[in-house]
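Section 5.1 Outputs to date
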Amino acid sequence: MSDLIQPKVLKGFRDFLPEEEIFRADLVEKLTGTYRSYGFVPIDTPILEYTEILLRKSNGETEKQVFRFEDNGHRDVAMRFDLTVPFARFTAEHKEELYFPFKRYHIAKVWRGEKPQAGRYREFVQCDFDTVGSDSATSDFETLALMKAALKAIGVEKVTIHVNHRGIFNRFLKQIGASENSEDILRIVDKLAKVGSEEVTKELADVTGSKESALKILEYIQPEEDFTSTLTHIEKLAGGEDSDTKRLKDIYAMMCASGIEGSYVLDPSITRGLDYYTGVVYETFLDDLPGIGSVCSGGRYDNLAGLYMKDKVPGVGASIGLDRLIAGLTELGLTSKKGSYLDAEIYNSNEDHVIYYQKIASLLREKGVSVEVFPDTVKMAKQYNLTEKKNIPWGILVSEEDVKNNTFTLKNLKTREQFTSLNAEEAAEKILK
């Protein structure tokens, strides 16, 4: 009987081969650069938190999805299911060390024990950015603008960002006498795209006790022709202008001033099911693949840090779901394949030249070229094959004459064009150009 253990990963978890991980890493680098360009700085928090920290302000559905266990010290702990709640704890714990407004980004894995499906996994990466300490329309707008800029930085320009304000919706629910069930109603409405209006109407009628109220809610969440007319419509249903509708007007004016208003729609059906959102909320959909769901979501959560500290610290932020986004890009054929970060491969055709190969490699690296020496003197066909698998653009060949003259041949592996008798500086110029 074999003692070998079958290699396998848990359902909803994945390994990533170099081609996939390089693509993911490249996206993260571009997102990181964009976040930094808006003034955001990095932080990190532990994977494990006390369960009471993560679940104190959550609904039953969230609790079902958390990976939770008792550790060896008999502590009730859980793995973070998002990066926002740990950030609230972080803010409260380090409030004396931070400056406000404080703008942070955090790109890391989170875990949810939900049913795996297309673009949705149990272990996935979130790319968060948040501003705490400011309750301004400027912070809300900057978050929305950065969502668009970050996606553009990774080559995703055909997106529509759906915006709403939970405060207006709550005022409307008060107008129709349904505010007592606001949290349940918000979660039901949030399922509209998934289950359809008929099912939502039925669930709303069950919660409010009235089909008439359910139909009024459905009327409220139907958008009008454009951002302004939709805002006028929901403002009227909510009882007139207030700070919440004024906030959306200010944000939209900033969008127009920045020339980006075409990427945003006011969608009263967007509520974000999590309890901690209190103001502006938003979700982002790929224009060519809306069915995959939101690839960047978030909102204002003014009361979240209040769970851990007496002082009220307002906050607003968003999160790009990297894995769902990549799943969408893959389906649309927008992903690229790269097997390494190398610019060039130095072929090993003669074991007597290995010292010279390393000399060339060192000189090229000093010039900013990423290069490696093939480690073994094997058939050239094998070396070429490996170079092709890695998608390396340049090859370097060395002859006896080259060793004498301190030169080498540079070969473009796509066009097959060759440049002979080059020194390291000349080769680096061609490669980096």
